[in-house]
Amino acid sequence: MKVQTFNAKHGKIWRTFVTLLFISLIGGSFWAIDRYVPPQHLFWKPLDTNRPLGFASKQQLLALNLKPSQTCMDLVRDTAGFKTVVADPKRPKTGAGKDICGWDVARVVYGTEDVIFAPGESNMQCPLSVAVFLWQREVNTLSETHFGQPLAKIHHYGSYSCRRQRGNGSGQWSEHAFANAWDVAAFELADGSLIQILRDWDGDRKKANFLRDSRKAACGLFRVTLSPDYNEAHRDHFHLDMGPGGACR
């Protein structure tokens, strides 16, 4: 009986020791990761737009969607080179979407110090504007890679439109109704060259590859990215949004 009691007691001590050792190792590993791994790779860290993209950037963007609006507005304020101001609230006074469309908190986005929007600025929900800033930075890098020169302009069809979805027959309200989507038609390089989605998606190989790489970069940031591969309604633009859905087509 004494031997059994002794063995049971020491077995319990040993299990406790192993458990504490395991907890210490896990805790120590987490501390080391949290301290030394760049924050753009850690999903529990807040998004920092002044850092390069990382493994966790899309998750950090999603988390930004779930936080109070002021968190995003503060982030935009602290983003270097981002040309944007606070948008006035907008709610339609008439029409089918008068109780649905519009926004309370949004940004007027002009582009960046290096890349401007054409024909002009666009109203966007704040998290969408952050995704656009990060994507524009990636597309600028792709422009340097594919063409040896930077991006100068992004040509777009706008963001806000109080309407339902088109092309899929769902009848649901579009993310455009909330300024939570942006349609991009073309990219203009520093030398004035224009890469158009309608003309070049299946055209010149270099331009087509650039457009597909730009779509891939968008899929890594936006909740929904739709291109000419999705349907006929998107033959001439990328649809980018931060809505609740998920698609990369």
Description:
By secondary structure, the protein is of the alpha+beta class. It has one domain (58-248). It contains 6 helices and 10 strands. The longest helix is centred in the first third of the chain and has 35 residues, at 2-36. 32% of the residues are buried.
Q: How are the SSEs placed, and which strands pair?
A:
Elements: H1 2-36, H2 57-66, H3 69-77, E1 82-86, E2 107-112, E3 116-118, E4 122-124, H4 126-147, E5 151-158, E6 181-189, E7 194-196, H5 197-200, H6 205-219, E8 224-226, E9 238-241, E10 247-248
Parallel strand pairs: 3-5, 8-10
Antiparallel strand pairs: 1-2, 2-4, 5-6, 6-7, 6-9, 8-9
The fraction of residues assigned to DSSP E strands is: 15-25%
Overall helicity: 25-40%
* Chain-averaged pLDDT: 91
Work out the count of structural domains: 1
Largest sheet: 7 strands, mixed
Summarize the structure.
By secondary structure, the chain is α+β, with helices and mostly antiparallel strands.
Features:
10 strands; 7-stranded mixed sheet
